[in-house]
Design brief:
With about 350 residues, this protein is α/β, with parallel strands linked by helices. Helices cover about 30% and strands about 25% of the residues.
Amino acid sequence: MKAARWHKARDIRIDEIDEPDAGPGQVKIRVGWTGICGSDLHEYLAGPIFVPVSAPHPVSKDVAPIVMGHEFSGVVEAVGEGVTRVRPGDRVVVEPILACGTCAPCLHGKYNVCDNLGFHGLSGGGGGFAPFTVVGERWVHPMPEGLSLEQGALVEPAAVALHAVRISPLRAGDTAAVFGAGPIGLLLIEALRAAGAAAIHVVELSGQRGAKALELGATSVINPAEVAPAERIRELTGGGVEVAFEVTGVPAVLQQCIDATRYEGEVVVVSIWEKEAAFQPNTVVLKERSLKGTIAYRDVFPAVLDLMTRGFFPAEKLVTKKIALADLVEEGFEALVREKTQIKILVEPGA
């Protein structure tokens, strides 16, 4: 079968590989749709980050080249011995975590901060940029009736957003700022609405993405090329927001996020970074602010699926293009680099 594999930065190839089979405890999935994630783009432009290159990943046992694609939905093709939660024909989404199960975080249920954390479709084990992939039964979630497979491909990035809001101190009626209106930033707006945020102030350079933020429920959009964003947010909120979410990975933005929060405010860093970022620690110390990181998600996929049945995280407002696997690099990755009008591009691996 054809599959998109990462060989090195700026080198993703459509290779011919063997079709996988489901072993004991595993589920074979016919992939329906797979989204291109910001993490995929980081690997394409500046990887390796999660891709194992010098040694096999401790969980997947794979080393580059690896099949990419971790935001996907599909239909169960076959199940291995012992699988009871799903059966052939079921529509499913995959929580693409690779966790060892034996380190201290895993033993305490915090599998998303596993000492050996990896991702199916980034760290080996197969991936969604292929017609078929195989995952452990634990990571498969049946889809509710009424949700399309296209909607299912948004569950993984929506889980990133919802988990970030859940681990923040935000409460119903609080104010929030979102720095960056890319796919995760836009999904954060939806997650914040679901959590009862009273106001959501978005900082974004792109006019098109800013307009989309307003469409999804942002209270205001601030263009940092026109006004100092932290100062403007403090003006709008009478001193700053309770929580600011950093979703750009741009070093200068981290300090802006800190400055946009009120006393005892918190910054939640959602981005994956390609380089270091500096900030003035006194801006945290003198206002007793907090700085927290978040990675992926845990125990949140069922909640995302439930929110989707109630209209949150709508695919029709977030998906801007659908392409075939053969067009992944030029019409997918390169399009995301050059076209800020693109939000979420879905790939149909079997097309």
